[in-house]
Write a structure and sequence with these properties.
Thioredoxin_domain, 208 residues, 2 domains, 11 strands, alpha+beta, SCO1/SenC, globular, seven-stranded mixed sheet, single chain
């Protein structure tokens, strides 16, 4: 009778193993997202006056944006869309956001902390980052290849990209391909389609 029980238990374990192993293997396989390259190294100060570097995000999937708190045009849209991303992944310790100001002379740690509070940023890995202006512009333009600049003739005095960068747990910028099979490089932070796409791809990277 005992032998029959052992045989039954062994059979159940075997079946479970056949079912579970492929799922476990799949969980740690790379997704179909393209590797663009390593995220540029950075060291900035967050809303809590704490130094945050790219190394602090290792082991996390995170989204990078460039913005400024007094932006009257695209930033409010980007802010609301980023809040939606926060809500989707709230409570996940391996997810984060890096919001880097392009107006650091105004956007001090204190200003960013107040901005984060008003905005409703609650995820513990959402850092609002400031630092030296020249350093930040170099990071945006040469590091991420995302436009950021001053322009006294535009509303708000600054111009910047409305795109979001997606970085995986190993510190590599990743993206999906478009309908022509070309890497999109970055995600549209202004349109619902772009936000839907980045949410889907964050989930893929969290499973890697």
């Amino acid at each position: 009778m005992k032998n029959k029980s052992y045989i039954g238990i062994s059979f159940i374990i075997l079946i479970f193993g056949i079912w579970a192993v492929p799922k476990i293997i799949a969980k740690f396989q790379k997704s179909d997202l393209v590797e663009i390259g390593p995220v540029p190294a950075f060291s900035l100060t967050d809303q809590n006056n704490k130094t945050i570097t790219d190394k602090d995000y290792l082991g996390k999937v995170y989204v990078v944006e460039f913005f400024f708190t007094t932006c009257p045009t695209i930033c409010p849209i980007m802010n609301q869309n980023m809040l939606g991303i926060q809500e989707e992944f709230y409570g996940k310790p391996d997810f984060g956001i890096a919001s880097i100001t392009i107006d650091p002379e105004h956007d001090t740690s204190e200003v960013l902390k107040q901005h984060a509070k008003i905005l409703g940023a609650k995820h513990y890995n959402w850092h609002f980052l400031t630092g030296d202006k020249k350093y930040i512009y170099n990071l945006a333009l040469k590091g991420f290849n995302l436009y950021a600049g001053e322009n006294a003739e535009v509303n708000g005095g600054f111009e910047h990209s409305g795109l979001f960068a997606l970085v995986d747990k190993e510190g590599k910028i990743r993206c999906r391909r478009d309908s022509q099979n070309n890497p999109i490089l970055y995600y549209d932070g202004l349109e619902p389609a772009g936000i839907k796409a980045i949410k889907e791809d964050i989930k893929k990277l969290l499973e890697e």
